[in-house]
Amino acid sequence: MEARRTLALVLLVGVIWSQLQFGAEAAGTTVFTLSNNCTYTVWPATLSGNSAVAVGGGGFELSPGATVSFPAPAGWSGRLWARTNCVPETSGASLSCATGDCGGAVRCSLGGAPPVTLAEFTLGGADGKDFYDVSLVDGYNVGIGVAATGARVNLSTCGYAGCVGDVNALCPAELQVAGKGGEQSGMATTTVACRSACEAFGTAEYCCTGEHGGPDSCRPTRYSRLFKAACPAAYSYAYDDPTSTFTCGAGAQYLITFCPAQQQ
Length: 264
Fold this sequence. Notes:
InterPro entries: Osmotin/thaumatin-like_sf, Thaumatin. By secondary structure, the chain is an alpha+beta fold.
């Protein structure tokens, strides 16, 4: 019941902020709009990197086709992700998810357990610009797309970050995480996530540590190339910066879509 009340509150906040988005842009506030284009329910989660502010309440339920909007304070940095195949406890106090789980909490104060696809933001960074990316460094569980919107910036200079390809369908056997698919596959056993090579093998070559701890010594591997081929606009390994980090002028708003491939 508590989880449902939380969802209702977040949805109400989303409606209010959607209606006031123009005013938010005028005031310089950043609004994140999350849209679930998947055929199954996801539980988005957020984690702040530089602030005690839990944007979006830290986590909530998002049904197929649903959209929620919420604000982020100036200078906010952090990450967003989707949890999948989640089962709320009867009391609503905890949540067990097959992927992206944050210690069983509904509202996250910990990062999502890998493998998980991440959308990462730094608002108002160098030269006042926003920096954002979608990362597969911690593996992949669901596709995410990030598009800048709004009237106060030149959107032609703001790139689309994201992972449109279905990495789970391409995942090598040694990286696959199998589980019950739930809404995704009618409870059949399926690949619910794809681990990074670092998580799977733990070697310096794949983790960019030790003698491979720099951009010159940590190079793409056959696994990161597979991720990059599926998702050219996402981080495939730690030093995949040139084609994976995007910037946008201050005042941009952001649409974050789960399962963006199904839009195309």
